[in-house]
């Protein structure tokens, strides 16, 4: 097998993992159609990924036909995506908590998010809300959060002037920290509210709670 073929296979497998991360689950046929590869090649890649422990599947009966496999990422598969804070950060924060106490650590983390909010606010600028949400999603995407956004159409929007947006993050770049110190998720919500100062920001989904994404509803005033 030549180097180009090996590289293409690696890229396709990564595409499958990324699709499962974003969609939470998928059938082989859905993956084949979404990624524009043959069903045979898709099943071969899925078998390889399962052998590596990166995905698993559940057999589901749909209609009168044969059971179909629904594929999902394992925790090992999710770990393949960017995670900018590793176990060193956890160990450091644990040591800090033992030294100065949990309340001091919470204050330090809050201060860190306040600094991050100032940085983000400067980078997103002061344009229309939609432009700022798009810029924020772009920044978070670059930091490994696999962020997406879209506008939500609501009745009466033209009359009230209210605009709604959804910001979704399919990967948490600080998942290890969030699992050990869940307060950082609250600070993150506060940070988004500070960046989008003229909006109300509400959490709709939460990875730490076992959901497959973090989601935020942004409502302009």
Automatic annotation (TrEMBL):
| A Pfam family reported for this protein in Swiss-Prot or TrEMBL | HTH_5
Against InterPro entries, the record matches this protein to:
ArsR-like_HTH, HTH_ArsR_DNA-bd_dom, SUF_FeS_clus_asmb_SufR_cyano, WH-like_DNA-bd_sf, WH_DNA-bd_sf
Indicate the segments forming the HTH arsR-type domain, all copies.
11-57
Q: Which CDD domains does this UniProt record tie to the protein?
A: HTH_ARSR
Record's superkingdom?
Answer: Bacteria
The cross-references to NCBIfam families, in alphabetical order and at most eight, read: SufR_cyano
Question: This protein is called what?
Answer: ArsR family transcriptional regulator
Q: Which organism is it from?
A: Limnospira platensis NIES-46
Its lineage opens with: Bacteria, Bacillati, Cyanobacteriota, Cyanophyceae, Oscillatoriophycideae
